[in-house]
Amino acid sequence: MGEINQPRPVLLVAAITSRYEAAIDWAISQFVDRWGDLAFESPLFDFTETSFYAKSMGADLKKKLVAVKGLVNPEQLAAAKILTNHWEIEFEQSSEFPEERPVNIDPGYVTEAKLVLATTKDRDHRIYLQSGIYAEVTLHYQSGRWQKSRWTYPDYQRDDFQDFLTKCRDFLRKRLQKND
115 has which bridge partners? Predict the structure, then answer.
C-alpha cells in the first residue's frame, strides 16, 4: 500500500482574456487582492487561435498570463475557479461594456511536471474536483520542454506562452528547493 502524503505547493496562475485592457487590469487587481503580489505578468498576447469567444466577448481579444508569488495548495483550484467566475459576473454587471462577457479569467496551477487548468466543462480527459469544477492537465513537462496533449488549447502550444510557463516552473522549483 502506498503512503498517503500531502501534495507539494503549486504556483497559482491565471489567463485573463478581454478586448479591453481595463478589464484585464481589473481582473489582475482582483487576483492580487486575493492571492498577493505577482511573481510574473506576461505581455498582452493577441488571442487569434480561435473564434470561439467572439460571440460573447467580441473581436480582437487579448490575453495576459499572470502568476502569484505565494505558493498554494493545489486543492484550492476549484475555489479559485468559482471565485473567478463570480468576478466575471461582477465585472460584467458593474461595467458599461457592450459584450455579454467582457472578461474571462481562467485559473490554473503550475507544478514541476504539469500545467493544470480549471474549467466548468466536463470532457473525457477532465477530472471532477468539486462544486461543478473540473481540472485538466493541459501541458506536461518532459525532456526539458512543455509537451501538448490532443486536447491542449492552441494558444498554450505557442512558444511565448510556454516561455512564460517555463519561467513559472523555474520559479516554483527554486521556491520548493528552499523549503526542502
Answer: 110, 139
